[in-house]
């Protein structure tokens, strides 16, 4: 009911560009029927925008096949280093649909803008960031950080400090360059 209320209300709204219906459905086959229902419920509302559920593991199992076959475009999470990312992106291109990376940026492992943007650009992959400003979601902390962990020197994800300044000036210019603003 909730999904159909939201998609039904905003399914023709030009401000909405995509419906990413479910974040990281669980492991194994028990979720396949549920995600198929999620797609069906959304499609019943006839949204003007594409719908997707992102692939978030490298698995080629039944769940990922169901997500990829049901999505209007291929969305995925990728925190790998550049060589592994290229392999993943190349495998997703085989589906012949637009690509959208909905989670990336894991600086401490080498998944950084300066390494990833050239790949996204070369393979025509759209991206968005799930963390933006240092704040309540605390996505600048590394996964598994404890409550009393001090501010890390290398942020995991966010881009902007709470004072409005970029986390890294060079990254700010790189984002602007690839967005066609510089």
Topology:
Layout: H1 2-10, E1 19-20, H2 32-44, E2 51-52, H3 62-70, E3 74-77, H4 82-93, E4 99-103, H5 113-122, E5 125-127, H6 169-178
Parallel strand pairs: 1-2, 3-4, 4-5
Helix pairs in contact: 1-2, 2-3, 5-6
Number of helices: 6
Please tell me what the overall shape is.
Answer: globular
Please count the beta strands (DSSP E, at least 2 residues each).
5
The percentage of residues in β strands lies in: 5-15%
Largest sheet: 3 strands, parallel
Uncertain stretches of 5 or more adjacent residues = none
Classify the secondary structure makeup into a structural class: alpha/beta
How far do the termini sit from each other? 44 Å
Question: In words, what does this structure look like?
Answer:
This protein is α/β, with parallel strands linked by helices. Helices cover 35% and strands 9% of the residues. It has 6 helices and 5 strands, in the order αβαβαβαβαβα. The chain has helices at 2-10, 32-44, 62-70, 82-93, 113-122, 169-178; strands spanning 19-20, 51-52, 74-77, 99-103, 125-127. It has a 3-stranded parallel β-sheet with strand order 3-4-5, covered by helices on one side. The longest helix has 13 residues, at 32-44. The model has no long low-confidence stretch (mean pLDDT 92).
């Amino acid at each position: 009911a909730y999904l159909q209320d939201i998609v039904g209300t905003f399914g023709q709204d030009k401000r909405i560009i995509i419906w990413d219906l479910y974040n990281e459905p669980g492991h194994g086959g028990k979720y396949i029927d549920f995600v198929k229902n999620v797609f069906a419920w959304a499609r019943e509302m006839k949204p003007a925008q594409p719908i997707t559920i992102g692939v978030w593991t490298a698995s080629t199992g039944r769940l990922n096949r169901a997500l990829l076959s049901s999505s209007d475009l291929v969305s995925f999470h990728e925190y790998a280093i550049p060589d592994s990312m290229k392999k993943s992106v190349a495998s997703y291109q085989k589906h012949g649909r637009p690509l959208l990376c909905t989670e990336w940026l894991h600086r401490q492992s080498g998944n950084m803008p300066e390494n990833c943007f050239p790949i996204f650009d070369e393979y025509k992959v759209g991206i968005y960031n799930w963390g933006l400003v240092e704040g309540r979601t605390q996505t600048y902390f590394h996964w598994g950080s404890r409550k009393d962990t001090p501010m890390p020197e290398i942020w995991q994800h966010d881009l902007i400090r709470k004072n409005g300044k970029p986390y890294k000036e060079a990254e700010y210019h790189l984002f602007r360059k690839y967005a066609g603003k510089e």
